């Protein structure tokens, strides 16, 4: 998961510890299903703001 997100291993571990992402425990191993990773990415994706006319100030 860390590789796919381009983060350190600590980030997914923190998400699991804070229960911010669903996971499956198999014995002492922790697995995150691909659908949960996709749902996490979709839920946290921020869309860009479109250009609004007149909202940008121009230099004098």
How would you characterize this protein structure?
The protein has three helices and two strands; from the N terminus they run H-H-E-E-H. It has helices spanning 2-5, 10-17, 34-43, and strands spanning 24-26, 29-31. The chain is elongated, with a radius of gyration of 18 Å. Helices cover 37% and strands 10% of the residues. With 60 residues, the protein is an alpha+beta fold. This is Excisionase family DNA binding protein. It holds the Pfam family HTH_17. Residues 2-44 form the Helix-turn-helix domain.
Structure described in brief:
The protein has helices spanning 2-5, 10-17, 34-43; strands at residues 24-26, 29-31. The chain is α+β, with helices and mostly antiparallel strands.
């Amino acid at each position: 998961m860390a590789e796919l997100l381009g983060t350190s291993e600590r980030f997914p571990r923190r998400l699991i510890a804070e229960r911010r992402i669903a996971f499956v425990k198999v014995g002492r191993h922790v697995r995150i299903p691909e659908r949960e990773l996709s749902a996490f990415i979709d839920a946290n994706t921020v869309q860009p703001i479109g250009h609004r006319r007149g909202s940008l100030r121009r230099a004098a």
